[in-house]
Amino acid sequence: MALLKLEDVVVDYGSIHALKKINMEVDSGEIITLIGANGAGKSTTMKAIMGLVPCKSGKITFDGTDITNWETKKAVQAGIILSPEGRQVFPRYSVKDNLFLGAYLRPRQEIPESLEMVYNLLPKLKERENQVAGSLSGGEQQMLAIGRAMMAKPKMLLLDEPSLGLAPLIINEIFGMIDEIRTLGTTILLVEQNARIALKHSDRAYVLETGNIVLSNKAEAMLQSDEVQKAYFGVL
Amino acid sequence: MLVQQIVNGFTIGSVYALVAIGFTMVFGVLELTNFSNSSLYMFGAYITFLFYTATGIHFFLAFGISIVLTGLLGYGIDRFALRQLRKKKAPKLSGLITTLGMSMVVDNAIMVFFGTDSKSFENFLDFGKIYIGSAVVTWTQIIILIAACILMITLSVITYRMKIGKAMGAIAQNQDAAKLMGIDTDKIISLTFIISGFLACIAGTMVAMYYRSIDTAMGSSIGIKIFAAAVLGGVGVLPGAVVGGLVLGIVETIVSAYISTGYRDAISFSILILVLLVMPNGLFGKKAINKV
């Protein structure tokens, strides 16, 4: 059974139709990528799942429960965590405080264990735990954003453009980390513009174009597909 | 003489600081200049007065009721006006004008209900005075100072040591990201308004006892001062509000005593302008630059 399911989800921003009846499914343990150009509706999909933007119609279910238009807090409680586009760490707080805020809804006694798990996953964060987040480099901030999301012990992790503005070497590091997170039993939904690397690390993918899902397939098959190559890899 | 003025300045300054803390907390969380804060201060004093004189209950019970009601008024202003604006993603200026409007509604309601003449207010903190050298310190002053200190310490602990304070700071830095942490942002914002109401009421009632009177100009006269105190210390920063309030109180009393009461506000605001010219973010303010 699908862990997360979107059925005919419609989101409007005023007169702009951001999502036009999209359908998708994420199974437990998968890494799914949502690729598409700017303005295709990728981030909107994430926000709709998190209850940050209202769905006009359609249905979102998580783990069998209808979560359509839930408050963000409830979605977080249910185990869906979004690491937002542009990282959005709390710049004036230390790395450690950022991580603690990630575990905001969790019982105090479980926090040290999660902190250790995150520090094992991202040893660099431990080195900088007392540094203010705003002073970290872009790559470190991205790692902090992911670490902060992991502090919530997500069943499902949504990652919005984790490679944005990062150097190729750092991007590889981030995706290595994403693979590692999957082995911890977390299901991942990834939004990426960097389609090639995202597909290499995913099981399946959906292609979003101006609010419609135009293609869905196994990631390997998509990597081979001429259509996808032309549209998203810049291959002529 | 100087010691005496400093004691007097500290007393009134600590009251400014209390109200300024409420103001600066709201600003810190929402980047909203809450003009209705001074109305809460006046409302608090008048409601204490009302419950005490009209019902004949014990003064401190009336004070307690008033603290609760003023907190509720603070909550109401946010819940029924400002939250609606936030939901609609209204520009910050709309919120600011709304608080100004709320302030007028509250101020005028008080005038209609109580009349514009000043009313005498009993001092329940009058336990005599003590002499320190040539200076006279009344117990009222000592109690006001102690109460203000306790409140300031409590609020610092809440803001800088407790989870709820971290949540307030998170909302201040990035409201959407705070929501993604599972923080109930509306609840935390409401709480901030309630605290600012509590503080305003406590300060207003203590000043009413100190001066033994209340009048309908008390709100507007303190409004500009808490604004100045918060800006002087660095708006949004708790210790800034405390130091700003104390500095303003002391400067004011000393100028009144040694120069002239007429120049009091002119000189204290000149000092404010000078400080801001040298330190644009105030004494404790953080630089606005954030690497994102």
Largest sheet descriptor of chain B: 2 strands, antiparallel
Number of helices of chain B: 11
- The helix/strand class of chain B is mainly alpha
- Name the shape of chain B in a single word: globular
What would you report as the Rg of chain B, rounded to the nearest angstrom? 19 Å
Element string of chain A (H = helix, E = strand):
EEEHEEHEHHHHEHEHEEHH
Main sheet of chain A, how many strands, which sense, barrel? Answer: 6 strands, mixed
When the domains of chain B are counted, the total is: 1
Strand percentage of chain B lies at: under 5%
Could you tell me the radius of gyration of chain A in angstroms?
17 Å
Overall pLDDT score of chain A: 92
**Element order, helices and strands of chain B?**
HHHHEEEHHHHEHHH
The helicity of chain A comes to: 25-40%
What assembly state would you assign to the polypeptide chains in this entry?
Answer: heterodimer
Largest interface (CB within 8 Å) is between: A-B, 27 and 20 residues
Helix/strand structural class of chain A: alpha/beta
Strand residue percentage of chain A: 25-35%
